[in-house]
Design brief:
The chain is mostly helical. It has 1 helix and no strands. It has a domain of 31 residues.
Length: 56
């Protein structure tokens, strides 16, 4: 299935799982957006959001 990823990670005791997961998901989402902007900008409007804190 090309629409998901499995990750095995070990969290340093100084960090919380929820924060690591949040940062990872934000990073991945940004990279997908940057890739769409560069390679398929005509597709990006399909991902627009009505949320006040984000465009996509």
């Amino acid at each position: 299935m090309p629409n998901h990823v499995h990750i095995i990670w070990s969290i340093n005791e100084a960090h919380e799982l929820k924060n690591v997961q949040r940062d990872f998901m934000k990073y991945v989402a940004q990279q997908i957006k940057f890739d769409l902007l560069k390679n398929q900008p005509n597709v990006l409007p399909f991902f627009e959001s009505n949320a006040n804190d984000r465009q996509y």
